[in-house]
Amino acid sequence: MRDTSAQDISAQKKELRHKMTVIRSHVSAASRRDQSIAASLLAENEVLSPLRKSRGGRLNVFCYVSFRDEPETLHLIRTCLERGDRVLVPKVISEERKLELHEMNDVNDLIPGVWGIPEPGDNMPHWPTARYAEIDIIIVPGLAYDRYGGRIGFGGGYYDRFIEQISSVKSTGLIPIKASLTLEEQIIPGRIPMEEHDFRLDMLFTASGMIYI
Ligand SMILES: Nc1nc2c(c(=O)[nH]1)N(C=O)[C@@H](CNc1ccc(C(=O)N[C@@H](CCC(=O)O)C(=O)O)cc1)CN2
Ligand SMILES: Nc1ncnc2c1ncn2[C@@H]1O[C@H](COP(=O)(O)OP(=O)(O)OP(=O)(O)O)[C@@H](O)[C@H]1O
């Protein structure tokens, strides 16, 4: 049995998920597209491009593939591919509630997976856990964010587990940047209720600017 405060947080998260799902569904497709493009441009110009220069020309970028009314990631993914980065995309392994990474060279090779989320096709090489330490930046999905690195997702814990796996294989060297693309409407004024297992983001890309944490 979890203690009362853990149950409280869990109930607050459930309520926030519901509220933010509704709020996000009310953003028009045009606004979502415009905001996604602007946020992606900012990510490229302010972070990816300088990082590429400092890390020898080619990055290993993990990026979720958007579905439903999430901020669209294909703009950013295409830019990374054009710049010669290695783009890693996740496949949902629902039985184990985990993500498996695959290297993508062409967005046309994505196929519909669990819940209709576009995922790597069979021709995309698997990126083993042992190589997670080589990832430079991780772009994660989320339903809502605060300005202090707090994030809430769909509630499967997929990304918490993934980030934990990355930390467990990190031995020496650089820690990957954890970031999200977000619509303005997804940023809440206060703080997201966070639990011990929840990771924090390093930066948020929005249409009107970046938020560094
Ligand atoms: N693009 C993207 N990929 C992602 C996530 C995400 O948020 N965005 N996830 C981040 O964690 C994981 C998938 N999480 C999901 C959780 C629930 C549902 C879903 O459709 N649930 C049903 C509820 C019924 C059921 O339990 O099956 C629904 O909403 O109708 C979809 C995805 C991994 N991949
Ligand atoms: N590292 C972990 N190991 C095992 N279980 C975990 C871990 N992280 C989260 N969980 C479990 O996953 C469930 C969902 O977690 P949480 O509410 O934080 O999801 P979320 O961050 O909103 O979802 P997601 O990461 O899929 O977007 C919780 O029941 C939690 O106990």
From TrEMBL:
It comes from the Bacteria. Its cofactor is Mg(2+). Its EC number is 6.3.3.2. Pfam families: 5-FTHF_cyc-lig. It catalyses: (6S)-5-formyl-5,6,7,8-tetrahydrofolate + ATP = (6R)-5,10-methenyltetrahydrofolate + ADP + phosphate. Keywords: ATP-binding, Magnesium, Metal-binding, Nucleotide-binding. It is an enzyme of class 6 (ligase). Belongs to the 5-formyltetrahydrofolate cyclo-ligase family. NCBIfam families: MTHFS_bact. This is 5-formyltetrahydrofolate cyclo-ligase. It comes from Paenibacillus motobuensis.
